[in-house]
Specification:
The protein has one domain. The chain is 16% helix and 18% strand. It contains one helix and two strands. A two-stranded parallel sheet has the order 1-2. Helix 1 links the parallel strand 1 and strand 2. The longest helix has 9 residues. This is NADPH-dependent FMN reductase. InterPro entries: Flavoprotein-like_sf (IPR029039).
Length: 57
């Protein structure tokens, strides 16, 4: 089984990286660095008039 490690720290090699590496030491892990991705704002419409738009139809 592989473990996904999602890193949201802003500094490579910073505390988040060090702690994440220690936490999964000895396991098969894939590290995903959020700073490498452009994440668009999300508008939460679940409680709005008209409600939630389903992803699948």
């Amino acid at each position: 089984m592989k473990i996904a490690v999602i890193k949201g720290g802003t500094r490579s090699g910073g505390n988040t990286d060090v702690l994440a590496e220690k936490a999964v030491q000895g396991f098969d892990a894939e590290h995903i660095y959020l700073q490498k991705y452009r994440i668009q704002p999300i508008e939460d419409l679940r409680h709005a008039q008209g409600g939630f738009r389903p992803v699948f139809r």
